[in-house]
Amino acid sequence: MNRKELDPEQSPSARFGQRLRTLRDERGWTQEELAARIGCTGTHVSAVETGRRPPTRRFAASVDKAFGTGDRFERQSRAARHTALIEGFPEYVAHEARAAEVRLYEVGVIPGLLQTAEYAAALEADAVRREAITPEQAEERVELAAQRQASLLRSPSPLILTVLDEGCIRRSMGTSAVMDAQFARLLDFAEMPNTVLQVAPFSMGARRPFSLPITILTMPDRSLMSYAESTHRGHLERESTFVVHLLAAYHQLQAEALSQAESVAMINQLRKGTP
Q: Do 195 and 261 fall into the same domain?
């Protein structure tokens, strides 16, 4: 029987399909036998294995149950469904939604958790203009930003500490009205009881411990995770011992950055159009 060769580097769907086929072969199951176990058709299994159909969350959860793989396939399916997102980011978002503490450092743009819908749309519209993504993918990214923000409105509230490089608030995005609303959103964020907002001014120079954006999560069991991105993929570090030094560097960053009061004053000055 001829079988389509799979290239796991082609897409998240292809990687999911290859892993599915590998485990199915290890069990000695045909596509029809797996389909019977998870409640679909052999044609459906074939389409997912060859990357012609992205796995739904329900499909992936059924596969995990059939193979006894915990939530391994369900987590991997997120990347296959969210084609507009960088590899590794959907998995990070799932952990972010459960974190007790979120520490952000961003360079260049306002981070997604603090963006207004209009700011997010303007940011993604530029990516569409550059043909980096499609209009549909832009819409998906804007929707995800809103979903991430909603997921943090829970009880008990997570602690969210944010340090923005000065360039984040000085870079215009969209119209003046969009930026005014975004500044208002930042000021409202700073007033929340579970948040801290600081700006790392240009004058810090080489004292910045990070040159790229970084996120550090403290989970409910006090374990640590970190997330950082390269051009094409994100890396989620789950081993706490590797994250501890990043946490120490983040504390140094906070000590060197402007206080929240000073940061709010800088944002207010920009909002009023004063240097």
A: yes
- Dump pLDDT digits (tens) for 180-199: 999 999 999 999 999 999 99
Residue 129: pLDDT above 70? yes
DSSP per-residue letters across the chain? -------TTS-HHHHHHHHHHHHHHHHT--HHHHHHHHTS-HHHHHHHHTTSSPPPHHHHHHHHHHHT-TTHHHHHHHHHH-TTSPBTHHHHHHHHTT-SEEEEEESSS--GGG--HHHHHHHHHHHHHTTSS-HHHHHHHHHHHHHHHHHT--SSPPEEEEEEEHHHHHS--S-HHHHHHHHHHHHHHHHSTTEEEEEE-GGGGGG-S-SS-EEEEE-TTS-EEEEEE-SSBEEEE--HHHHHHHHHHHHHHHHHSPPHHHHHHHHHHHHTT--
Q: In the predicted model, what is the mean pLDDT of residues 250-256?
A: 97
Identify the CATH number of the domain in which residue 249 sits. Answer: 3.30.870.10
